[in-house]
Automatic annotation (TrEMBL):
Domain Transposase IS4-like as annotated: residue spans: 100-204
Protein name: Transposase
Xref: InterPro entries: Transposase_11 (IPR002559)
Swiss-Prot/TrEMBL GO biological process terms: DNA transposition
MF (Gene Ontology): DNA binding; transposase activity
Record field: transmembrane: none
Pfam families named among the record's database cross-references: DDE_Tnp_1
């Protein structure tokens, strides 16, 4: 997360200021890190308060009331700690495999759905429903919070294998499923690669694309 990295950078700058302006006179130095865990920043906050003898009941606020350097630094570090707690909660809720979730349904992911009757795109919390069809029968069905079909292919095939004890020999799917990782997965599990890659149509039928001198050339 870019915002979290910005907070890490700000904490490092604040620790520099703390070490130079306050803690250095006491013979103490806080350690800087590339990334800051919530527990570590919470520990720094407690140590800073105890080392400098800060009393929160004596903090000043409001117009015309000048805050001390120690109060400013303590409050700034406390603000960063609260942000890190918020980021940790969002990351735990969202997981590593998606980049958004709905506040009303944490398992759902925001996806751009088909246009409504007014012709507007709808970005709404949703699930990606997957079905494997064999001889016009639904063999397996799966529901995932991934917006991309590419991410749904492997879980669906694994569910097929758990259900029937083998992988399908010819998994046919459209270009939305074609990716290097999925082709490699098929190769490793004895499945034929019957999925077009995302640029298949353009590379096979688009004359203008082939005549474009600025397109990336294959090695």
């Amino acid at each position: 997360m870019k915002n979290r990295q910005k907070v890490f950078d700000k904490i490092s700058l604040l620790i520099d200021a703390m070490n130079q302006e306050v803690l250095g006179y006491l013979g103490i130095k806080f350690e800087k890190r590339e990334a800051y865990a919530v527990d570590y920043v919470s520990e720094l906050l407690t140590m800073y308060k105890e080392t400098t003898g800060l009393d929160e009941t004596s903090f000043v606020s409001g117009r015309g009331r000048r805050k001390s350097i120690r109060q400013k630094q303590y409050e700034e570090l406390h603000e960063y700690l609260e942000r890190l707690k918020s980021y940790a909660y969002h990351i735990e809720t969202c997981g590593e495999e998606r980049n958004s979730y709905s506040k009303t349904d944490h398992d759902a992911t925001f996806m751009r759905l088909k246009r409504d009757y007014m012709g507007n795109d709808q970005l709404l919390p949703a699930y990606n429903l997957q079905a494997a069809i064999c001889d016009e029968y639904i063999a397996v069905i799966d529901v995932k919070p991934y917006a991309s079909d590419m991410e749904c292919f492997v879980p669906l095939m694994e569910k097929f294998n758990r259900t029937y004890g083998h992988y399908p020999k010819y998994p046919v799917a459209d270009a939305g499923y074609g990716s290097y990782n999925n082709y490699l997965y098929c190769e490793e599990h004895g499945m034929e690669k019957y999925m077009k890659f995302t640029m298949y149509k353009k590379e096979t039928t688009d004359k203008k694309y082939h005549e474009n001198p600025y397109r990336a050339a294959k090695s």
